[in-house]
Amino acid sequence: MPTIFTRIANGEIPSYKVAENEEYYAFLDINPLAKGHTLVIPKHVEDDYIFHLDDDVYLGLCAFAKKVAQAIKAAVPCKRVGVAVLGMEVPHTHIHLVPLNSEADLDFRKEKLALSADEFAAIAASIREEYEKL
Ligand code: 5GP
């Protein structure tokens, strides 16, 4: 049974795509801590613990996340892009990339933003545009 994130990467479940290549997929978190909060996943490996990944998949995921973070930083006003790996909810390795203006922006206990479909689409489009320039 594929994970929900595999189904997202396959296009079976809709997502606000931010970037993609053969191996990795990036999309907006549906319950964001901040505008531009993005999840980055390997497409073909579902293992739910990042430190179980083979080195090539792990390093490739990190390199892809770095590029996506550069695009987020260019598209979303923020001091820097924070990184977190939790995996408490979805059993498919993913890296959270969260635009930060303060330490509190990476507090997963805080109330999530409620964005409209138009807002999600606009943010994803602006990050995609920056990603294409890299
Ligand atoms: P974690 O597994 O890292 O603890 O949390 C999973 C993250 O995935 C949460 O931030 C949650 O909002 C996000 N998430 C869960 N299901 C979906 C989904 O169907 N679509 C999207 N875009 N994000 C999801």
Q: What layout of secondary structure does this protein have?
A:
Layout: H1 4-9, E1 17-20, E2 24-28, E3 38-42, H2 55-75, E4 80-84, E5 95-100, H3 117-133
Antiparallel strand pairs: 1-2, 2-3, 3-5, 4-5
Helix pairs in contact: 2-3
Would you write up a description of this structure?
The chain has 134 residues and is α+β, with helices and mostly antiparallel strands. It has a single domain, classed as HIT family, subunit A. 33% of the residues lie in helices and 19% in strands. The protein is built from three helices and five strands, in the order αβββαββα. The protein has a five-stranded antiparallel sheet with strand order 1-2-3-5-4. It is globular. The protein starts with a helix and ends with a helix. The mean pLDDT is 98. Guanosine-5'-monophosphate (5GP) binds at residues 4, 15, 27-31, 39, 86-90, 94.
Bound molecules: guanosine-5'-monophosphate
Helix count, DSSP H or I runs of 4 or more residues? 3
Number of strands: 5
The tally of domains stands at 1
CATH architectural label:
2-Layer Sandwich
| SSE series | HEEEHEEH
CATH topology: HIT family, subunit A
Contiguous uncertain segments of 5+ residues: none
Give the CATH level 1 class.
Answer: Alpha Beta
Major sheet description: 5 strands, antiparallel
Q: Distance between the terminal alpha carbons, to the nearest Å?
A: 35 Å
Residue-averaged pLDDT, rounded? 98
Shape: globular
Helix fraction, binned, reads 25-40%
The CATH superfamily is HIT-like
Instruction: Determine the strand fraction and express it as a percent band.
Output: 15-25%
Strand order of the largest sheet: 1-2-3-5-4
